[in-house]
Amino acid sequence: MDFFKYINIPVFVVSLILGMMAMYITLPETRKIYVFPTPENIDVLQYRDKTGTCFSFKQKEVDCPKSESDISTIQPQG
After folding, report:
1. What's the number of domains the chain is made of?
2. What's the pLDDT at 29?
3. CA 16 → CA 2, 11, 13, distances in Å?
4. 3-state SS string over the chain?
5. Is position 78 within any domain?
6. Rg (CA), the chain
7. Which of 20, 26, 34, 50 lies 20 to 30 A from 43 at CA?
8. What's the Cα-to-Cα distance from 21 to each of 11, 16, 26, 27, 52, rounded to whole Å?
9. What local confidence, expressed as pLDDT, does residue 1 receive?
10. Angle at 25 between CA 21 and CA 28, to 5 degrees
11. 47 contacts 55 by C-beta, under 8 angstroms
12. Does some domain include residue 50?
């Protein structure tokens, strides 16, 4: 093919590997930021769970139950 007479394959492979190594080394470190819903940010943020599903919360004021056995605790995914 005429295409390969313009490209030196060994030089291309070496430069590709060096470029990939340079990108791997210079990429910024990723970090997870955990944000919990508060009354101030309830309308602003969207959240994503471990399965990748996006959701948001709606704030609703309710009366507390009289019995403590009616109160349930939901653990956050971590």
Report:
1. 1
2. 86
3. 21, 8, 5
4. CCHHHCCCHHHHHHHHHHHHHHHHHHCCCCCCCCCCCCCCCCCCCCEECCCCCEECCCCCCCCCCCCHHHCCCCCCCC
5. no
6. 26
7. 50
8. 15, 9, 9, 10, 29
9. 63
10. 135
11. yes
12. yes
- Give residue for tokens 């030196």: 8
Residue at 24 is within a domain: yes
Structural contact between residues 71 and 77, judged by C-beta atoms closer than 8 angstroms: no
Spell out, as residue ranges, where the chain has pLDDT lower than 50: none
33 is a domain residue:
yes
Tokens 């910024």 belong to residue: 28
CA distance 56 to 44: 9
